[in-house]
Specification:
Layout: E1 8-10, H1 12-22, E2 28-31, H2 41-57, E3 60-65, H3 75-88, E4 94-98, H4 103-115, E5 119-122, H5 126-134, H6 153-160, E6 166-169, E7 175-180, E8 184-189, E9 197-199, H7 207-217, E10 222-226, H8 233-243, E11 249-253, E12 256-257, H9 273-278, H10 283-291, H11 305-311, E13 322-323, H12 326-339, H13 342-350, H14 361-368, H15 374-385, H16 393-397, H17 401-416, H18 423-437, H19 441-453, H20 461-468, H21 470-485
Parallel strand pairs: 1-7, 2-3, 3-4, 10-11, 12-13
Antiparallel strand pairs: 5-6, 6-9, 7-8
The protein binds glutamic acid.
Length: about 500
């Protein structure tokens, strides 16, 4: 047998060699989602890390859609993945390439493996394999028993003319190991890996073959993907070796877990990128949040995409899993809402705003600091626009109706006299009036708030008066007072 003891090294030495040889070296990374579902947090994070690494190194970021599983891949899901990436502004430089359109290339690779003696035809039928499997003490531990490895080339060629066969990769004796640039050295014994199928009997390539053929032909230098792919890597390295080509470098990213430290899933709430958009999360906030998962980026506020790429250090990706903390995402989103350019915020808000009239800058300024999502922001803004709201029952019940009926008319009269309608002056008037009448400030503040926005919570009452403007404020206070005086009827 031509393959004896071989140790594989996917190592920096090849890349360094490449730099010396060609006098220049460009990082080329890829994101290779299977379009069998929406773009989720885990996938988006993988895409982002690749994107940031390309940005940081002046390299290229390739998008490849792995749509070979015809039963599970759909065009809609491909569109949804592209939509998610576009919304996050994770911009690819090349592609999207579609794996399903590259079948011929994959088949060529299988034949090349065969030609070079690193693969062989296997004529065992499913039934035969089942039969042999059953004979094992523990059938679950079955690995293909290399039965057809022993068939000579001549016999194999002859049988191929009339019999059905698959092509299997020959896993060499020894160890398959690589220096993972996230996880460090990873080593597999070849006894752990079976002679897996690279080409099915119908001529269709299997997953690992397609990935290698595509990564190689696209010139990928670094493969950054989820650690759930670690078990595929020794198989892919065996294919690289068999094709006689240098493998790229591999880095496997730790998974993202829910707060209960279990694998992130629907149980943990929203995980699809577009669903976050619908919940009023801003793209830059999610970008920042994803960039902070298990990396050296850890900020209390949102950075620009460029700044993140500048600071990002691939060497500092943590080896252990990181936890998806929705509260942190909300925190970052709220921070961004309260600090971002006001015109940009207005543009974002339009997608969540359903009234003709749009809130003015003053209203936005006092509400945005209290809103963690665009949905919250739009809810907080509604009272500035909507006139005929009802009063919240529970807040209404807490109001001292007697005092309100007795003093509120005079209070309104005092407010009417204010010529410069700003927070300080309004506060001065309110506190002065309360003192004069032996009231507490809250005896005026609580009803005022209820009359202005219909509920018990709002920005600071003085901000609220200010942002609503004098005319609208006084109109609403009068309506409220009449409501109380008439014993709970709008008059
Ligand atoms: N298509 C694979 C997936 O969606 C990724 C393959 C790879 O990154 O090598 O999980």
């Amino acid at each position: 047998n031509e393959i004896s003891q071989v140790d594989f090294h996917s190592g920096e030495e090849f890349l360094i060699f490449g730099i010396i040889l060609f006098g220049g070296f460009m990082v080329k990374v890829r994101f290779a989602p299977s379009p069998t579902g929406y773009l989720h947090i885990g996938g988006a994070r993988t895409a982002l890390v690749n994107y940031l690494y390309a940005q940081k190194t002046g390299g290229k970021f390739v998008l490849r859609i792995e749509d070979t599983d015809e039963n599970r891949s759909t065009k809609d899901m491909t569109a949804a993945i592209l939509e998610g990436l576009e919304w996050l502004k994770i911009q690819w430089d090349e592609g999207p390439f579609f794996q399903s359109e590259r079948k011929e290339l994959h088949q060529e690779c299988a034949l090349k493996l065969l030609e070079r003696g690193f693969a062989y035809r296997c004529f065992c039928s499913k039934e035969e394999i089942e039969e042999r499997k059953k004979r094992l003490e523990n059938p679950a531990e079955w690995k293909y028993d290399k039965n057809c490895r022993a068939i000579s080339k001549e016999e194999s060629d002859k049988r191929a003319a009339t019999e059905k066969f698959v092509i299997r990769c020959k896993i060499p004796e020894g160890k398959i190991e690589w220096n993972d640039f996230v996880k460090g050295k990873i080593s597999f014994n070849s006894s752990e890996i079976e002679d897996f199928v690279v080409l099915r009997s119908d001529g269709s390539p299997t997953y690992n073959l397609s990935v290698v053929a595509d990564d190689y032909s696209l010139g990928i230098t670094h493969i950054l993907r989820g650690e759930d792919h670690i078990s595929n890597t020794p198989k892919q390295l065996a294919i690289y070796k068999g094709l006689g080509i240098e493998p790229p470098l591999f880095g496997h990213l730790p998974l993202i877990l829910g707060k209960d430290r279990k694998k992130l899933s629907k149980r943990h709430g929203t995980t699809s990128v577009i669903a976050f958009k619908k919940e009023g999360i801003l793209s830059l906030a999610l970008f920042n949040f994803l960039a902070s998962l298990g990396t050296n980026i850890d900020e209390e506020k949102c950075l620009s995409r460029e700044e993140i790429a500048r600071r990002f250090e691939i060497e500092k990706i943590k080896k252990s899993s990181s936890v998806f903390d929705y509260d942190k995402l909300l925190f970052l989103n709220g921070k961004l809402i309260s600090e971002m350019d006001l015109n940009e915020l207005k543009e974002e808000l339009k997608n969540f705003w359903e009234f003709q009239e749009f809130p003015d800058d003053k209203a936005l300024a006092v509400t945005r600091t209290r809103s963690r999502t665009l949905i919250e922001l739009s809810k907080n803004l509604i009272p500035f626009i909507k006139e005929d709201f009802e009063y919240d029952e529970s807040s209404l019940s807490k109001i001292d109706k007697e005092k309100t009926s007795k003093y509120f008319g005079q209070f309104i009269f005092h407010l009417e006299k204010i010529s410069e309608w700003i927070q300080d002056k309004i506060e001065q008037e309110l506190r002065g009036f309360a003192e004069e009448k032996g009231l507490k400030a809250k005896d005026l503040i609580h009803p005022s708030r209820l009359f202005l926005v219909g509920k018990g919570e709002s920005p600071s009452i003085f901000d609220l008066f200010y942002a609503m403007g004098k005319e609208k404020s006084l109109r609403r206070l009068k309506r409220g007072l009449n409501f109380i005086k008439s014993g709970g009827k709008d008059v």
